[in-house]
UniProtKB/TrEMBL annotation:
Protein name in the entry: NmrA-like domain-containing protein
Sequence ranges assigned to domain NmrA-like in this UniProt record: 13-249
InterPro entries in UniProt: NAD(P)-bd_dom_sf (IPR036291), NmrA-like (IPR008030), NmrA/Isoflavone_reductase-like (IPR051609)
SUPFAM superfamilies from the UniProt entry: NAD(P)-binding Rossmann-fold domains
Record keywords, A-Z: NADP, Oxidoreductase
Pfam families: NmrA
Gene3D superfamilies, sorted: NAD(P)-binding Rossmann-like Domain, UDP-galactose 4-epimerase, domain 1
Amino acid sequence: MPSTPPSSFRPRNILLFGATGNIGKFILDAIVSARDEFSRVAIFTSPASAQSKASLFNDLKTNKRVEVITGDIANEKEVTEAYKGIDTVISALGRTVIEAQIPLIRLADQASDVKWFLPSEYGTDIKYSPASASEKPHQGKLKVRAYLENETKDLAHTYVVTGPYPEMYIKGFPMGREAGGWDAREKKATLLGEKGQDPVSFTTMKDVGTLVLATLRHPSVSFNRALKVNSFTTTPAGIQAEFEKQTGGQPWTDVQYTPLPRLRELEQQAWAGGSPAAAGWTLRRIWTEGGTLYEKRDNDVIGNPKLTTLEEVVKDIVSSQGAKL
Ligand SMILES: NC(=O)c1ccc[n+]([C@@H]2O[C@H](COP(=O)([O-])OP(=O)(O)OC[C@H]3O[C@@H](n4cnc5c(N)ncnc54)[C@H](OP(=O)(O)O)[C@@H]3O)[C@@H](O)[C@H]2O)c1
């Protein structure tokens, strides 16, 4: 059973895994922006990253008061050593090493100083409905949750559930034209779902950092639960309308749709063909089916931090894609 630290508990000494990855860097940025609220901020990184990201780590150590610990997440001695004096562990480890968190959690549970563990979630709700239990991309994170909930004795946890990042889902066509996206320069788009009318909840990557920091600032209400948070909810048609508004106000002519039955077909083909993008297709299908929508979101539980709007996201994308206005 997980534990519940006393209501006086405040995270003071933080250790992050995966702190320089896609989403980890936004979490680290947010924590560094509030550096004075913490005694220690440390990151645990692989020797490979220590070498390839040496100048970034130098900057963190010299200018941001971040301790950089180099080690192997599979080396129990190195991890146990890194946990000394740490009360809160935040993992932003990547999809390929989700299950490697289980020994990290076991060691955290055994470490007398560590009281709180935030595993790598920051995505789609893996317990949205009974069907979630059999979704292939959720399996690793489900095992991690089961371990935190059933096998720990002296450790609290929090799952920060954010839904998709609009920067990844909206910008360009990272998985090809049928997987959805917007190109403001060429004024072309693919909207998922029937006429793009299916709402999706998004959290920007910067806001994931803001929301994790807000979680750290509200410990007792966050223990041993999922926080389902987001920046905004909109439809693909709503995103299209915002792009058209910000690119001259005229309708775009090259707008395509990928309805759910076609999305399911592409998903099945990707899994059958062993495509590395298969999980991406499943997630797009889940989002389009409404798997990011909640009766109540939990932003207020952690103090309703100020978050990014759709207008701001589209403005950034229009500018980064060099669209003619
Ligand atoms: N909601 C969304 O749209 C969305 C999108 C992407 C990701 N996510 C979620 O965000 C979380 C983090 O994903 P990410 O894309 O940010 O991760 P990532 O950039 O792929 O990896 C993060 C860090 O994990 C460590 N790592 C990765 N592979 C490793 C390996 N084979 N062995 C040891 N360490 C390894 C590395 O840290 P070091 O080298 O520093 O140790 C790396 O910088 C995941 O839970 C993922 O599902 C959500």
